[in-house]
Amino acid sequence: MSTPASLYDEAVKTYEGGDVEQAVEKLKEVLAIDENYTLAHSAIAVYYQKLGKFDEAIAHATKVTELDPDDYFSHMQLSVICQRCGRIQEAEDALAKAHSMGQRK
């Protein structure tokens, strides 16, 4: 049986091979096993954004900030994804949240 980590690794390799849609399917498998697998939500957010599925991208990037609310990078990623999806106010809000936190880990 595949583990979330091994499926995640397969998804990244698939993405690097150029098959973004298949990488998304692998990440969905990860999330079916562990719905709180942060790395999968983070990656799928980027992949959905690249596929033009903006609502899905933002939903997964938002989920990352919910799973790890004190993570500076998560809020920065949400800001970037929102910006790339044309959601400027949401991007600015996420950026402000990140800046209010500083770069703490």
From TrEMBL:
Keywords: TPR repeat
Pfam families named in the record: TPR_19
Superkingdom of source: Bacteria
Transmembrane segments: none
SUPFAM superfamilies documented for this protein: TPR-like
Start and stop residues of the TPR repeats: 38-71
Keyword NAD: no
Name this polypeptide is given: Tetratricopeptide repeat protein
Organism: Gimesia algae
